[in-house]
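Write out the 3D structure for:
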Amino acid sequence: MDKISFWEFERVMSCDIREKRDPCIEICFSVENSISYRDCWMGKMIDRDTGKSIYWFGLVPDGSQAHEFTTFEEFVSTCVFHGNESLKELWHRILILSLNGGTVEETLPYYLNLS
């Protein structure tokens, strides 16, 4: 499990995924000291209907806390964690488990060089 800076996270999420072979970013994460938010997912992909990027969360396995946003700012600022905390507010407690299926150590430099 790794922590990355919010700046690094912003850089990853700012990548133009339309230019990638696999047009999505998937991040598996947990919230430190949380029973509810372990093995959560978030990412960025292309909306099939609009062709535009969307940002998303899959916070629990049953899909009851799945959320989609059209802007990065809305994605990080909306209170989706227990309805009263945003990703930006919780960033200091976010542990990255994987970044597009790889470790942060092996995958983060690739995204930082693309931005």
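The chain has a mean pLDDT of 91.
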